[in-house]
Amino acid sequence: MRVTKSFPVSDYFPWFQQLLAWTRQQSHFIWLESNVEDVKDSYATYDWLIGADIHQQWDVAEIQKIRKEKPDWYFGYFSYDYKNQIYGLTSSNATSVAVADAFFFQPKKIIYLQKGQLFFSYLEEIQQEIEVDYVFLTEEMHPLKSTEKSSLNITSIGKETYLKAVQKVQQHILRGDIYETNYCMEFVAKNANINPWQVFQELNRISKAPMSVFAKMGEQFLLSASPERYLKRTGNQLISQPIKGTAKRGKTNEEDGKLKTALRNDPKEQMENVMIVDMVRNDLSRLAVKNSVQVQELFGIYTFEQVHQMISTIVAEVSKETHWLDIIHATFPMGSMTGAPKISAMKITEALETFQRGWYSGTFGYITPTGDFDFNVVIRSIQHDAAKKIVSFGVGSAITIQANPEMEYEECLLKAKAMLQILT
Prior knowledge:
The chain is of the alpha+beta class. About 30% of the residues lie in helices and about 30% in strands. The chain contains 10 helices and 19 strands. The chain has a 19-stranded antiparallel sheet that branches.
């Protein structure tokens, strides 16, 4: 059982800063940040939602046991390599930040902001800590201490290696092995001393993305400014919003308008987007109510701080009895990070990529006691292992037969821009 109390909140940002300070006391937490003050997301339920302090936990070998638990809140993730569990695949590439394929926990403490009210929902046995934590949050400011950044030597596979790999992808397309795939490369720095709280605050400030995540799993951190929703469930409705299509921001409103129009009308970007839309429709149809899968919006253009994105929205209905884990298994990994056909695309990218994606291309999210959930796509995200002093992030783009390898490389650099800016 949980005890829930709420308090009115008038100013967003000071509470954001105080909560950052509060999370420094936690060994494990997942903070899901919607940035509703700056981003229009008609499907956002919470301004922010934080689960902290583990009561129970389940790793990949125990994930099915959650079905037998009493309904409650669960927070967690599926890394990209959870695909191996679903499809019987393997991953042998090197990994910079080694994470479990899946991990979920029942938090003792949940804090969320919704419609100007700050809610504390704590397990009954620790309900007295609501007042303790609220007092901490209302005391004088607990500012993040500014730390001097270490000089990070961030490396990647380089342009020449990237171009050769894309050409190999296109050879597979010509042979009919696949239609499209999402080829990715890693940026990594060793001997990296960073302050994750400070880096997340800065990354969030310059990105303001609707599906952002700040997570601490022991000594491992995810600092995410993701704009993409993988899958959300509200009652019987499922919503998926794949992104395919990226353009840079302009220096003026007029230039922004031209770039958005060009993105909206680009045949290549439309083709990439519709391929993924079809894949999402096919995935959802595996468990959806008959004839309920619909494309609610095709080729929508959305503007974020760093880029313009082409986003489509697909909806479907499922029965109340459909378990959230079955929905994940039917649709994971998300089509926007794999390609079509999905299994062939995953095998080919696994052979051509030089790193194990880990959290990148996976998903973080929550499940409510009623079975509703919301999961992001882990992109525009920094992985950090504080014990091993490693920082890693991946970027990628959709490769079709029409793709220009040079332009795809530039798109990857555009997606890496915010993360490189913050880290260097």
